[in-house]
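Residues determine shape. We examine one folded chain.
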Amino acid sequence: MARRAGRVLVWSAAAVLAAGPAVAVPAVKELTTRYRSVSVTGAAMAPALAAGDRALVAPVRPADIRDGDIVLVDVPEFTGGNGPSIKRVIGTGGDRLACCGGTGDQVRRNGALLVEPYARGGTRGFDLTVEQHRLFLLGDNREDSVDSQRPELFRHQVDGTVPDGAVLGRVVWTTAGAVGGPQERRVSALMLRTAVGVVLTLAGAIALPLALVLAARRRRRPVAPLQEAVLAAHP
């Protein structure tokens, strides 16, 4: 009985140790192969995203980019050639955009006022129709963002729009929880599975050696008194 109990302990600890990688590895593989991790720099997307926040970016086809998406873009005019930046899509091909400029003014898209609880500061004036396969991008912190409302930065495009091919991916998760939606929930679930797998692996790594020691001790237990009496009566 003692030996059987020892074997059960060993098998249980080994099962926990094996379960950890089985849970964590697929989640880690998806997180590292499907998503790109970036660090937010500057205050252009404040308050939704602050400097130092982390974001995960998923590939997106230009045809699937939607108004309101937060995207990672490679537009040298936005950063002075210092790498990609994060902006919000305000208009896609065919959208009519207008804004009067000045603190508190709202952007109109196709005649409708945009509800932008994330926006801070005044937006500079513009009035344009976005060409097909181009995007109009703004930072949430309008007065501290270099974006499409500054067309003077562009040599060959007078309206500040950028090609949709400049989008490197859609932001689907941030440490600040600024995205929401099914993709953010998917990423959160993958992170939870990773954490559970790590915990199981650590627990198994600790429990298995202890179980082996206990099983060895059970195998070396002294003979019981009743067994000693029987042996003495029958030398």
In short: Helices lie at 2-34, 76-79, 182-219, 225-233. The mean pLDDT is 86.
